[in-house]
Amino acid sequence: MDLSYDGTNYHGWQNQPNAISVQSCIEKALSILTKSDTHIYGAGRTDAGVHAIKMFAHFDSHKLINITKLMHDLNSFLAKDISVNNIYRVKNDSHARFDAISREYEYNISLSKDVFNINKSYYVYHNLDVKLMNDACTILKNHVNFKCFSRSKTDVKTYNCDLTLAKWELSNDQLIFTIKANRFLRNMVRAIVGTMIQVGNKKINLKNFEEILISQDRTKAGPSAPAHALYLSNIEYPKEIFANE
User: Fold this and answer.
1) I need a labelling partner for 77 at 20 to 30 A (CA). Which of 28, 47, 83, 130 fits?
2) Of 134, 140, 101, 106, which is closest to residue 121 (Cα–Cα)?
3) CATH 3.30.70.660: does it fit domain 102-233?
């Protein structure tokens, strides 16, 4: 399933007790429409308030599904802030999380106050040096261990990520950060953005930025940027996982 959602009204992607998640809403709709208890497996997790332009999830069904009808029924059943963009048949051993080969995020910063974009972009009122922030991106891509940008007490076997893209682009009063890697740590993108904002407003210099990376210490990095301006923008899969129709 290729999905989009506005994360404003949800406590993140993943199911959790006493809170509304994107996953639980889709599972409820699927279970009702397919008349069977259906669990979905997401390509990853997004935190409370984070949006997705493109999220993928998979589910198993022993029934023959009319994909066009199911998409229509799901979009009619789901809240207006969750959309099913497409559904694909994949091979039986395919997995939305483990088969993903890359993930991409965008972070949106507004350099002027926009009351109509308050839940979609982070307003930063001070001047930012975009060249310095892109210089920090170059440093970032020279590293593989990103423990300094990971939420503490995270149960992972490695803090290494294969980073293939990191850049800031300025368009009018919108500053957009794009980052792509094979995997991301919990809170990693927001911590990187928060630290790079400190580079941009010259609270820390590029030497300090590299020292933070080398330290592998989250307390030395900057604060996490707010969740409401972060978007999961794309996930890539190998063609081999898709079933021949």
Assistant:
1) 47
2) 106
3) yes
